[in-house]
Write a structure and sequence with these properties.
The protein has helices at 6-15, 33-41, 71-82, 86-100; strands spanning 21-23, 47-49. The protein is mainly α and 106 residues long.
Length: 106
């Protein structure tokens, strides 16, 4: 999961044209405003969602065991931070994951 600076994220994206940056539930934490700035700057086409299970469950389940079933809450946090529709975030990040891991789409 990415928790670095905006400057580093942009440098990584520029240096590696096929790179996707992964975000977890930590983007929903109240004190993660700098990380939400990164989420707003990273193109949705270069983003994937992660859980980092069993840690970093998103708000409102922070402190609980994290699992892949909580990915919709991570998508919601991205949508909220970026002002994009949840459906767009979910669909695009799913497509990115399928492409990144060379998985067939259904």
């Amino acid at each position: 999961c990415y928790t670095g600076s905006l400057e580093h994220a942009m440098r990584f994206l520029d240096a590696f044209p096929n790179l996707c940056i992964g975000f977890t539930g930590c983007i929903s934490f109240p004190k993660a405003s700098a990380l939400r700035d990164v989420v707003r700057a990273v193109p949705l086409s270069r983003m994937v969602l992660e859980t980092d299970a069993p840690f970093m469950a998103p708000v409102p389940l922070r402190g609980k065991t994290c699992h892949s079933g909580l990915l919709p809450l991570v998508a919601f946090a991205v949508a909220r931070a970026t002002g994009r529709p949840l459906q767009d975030v979910s669909q695009t990040t799913t497509e990115n994951t399928l492409r990144l891991y060379r998985l067939p789409s259904s």
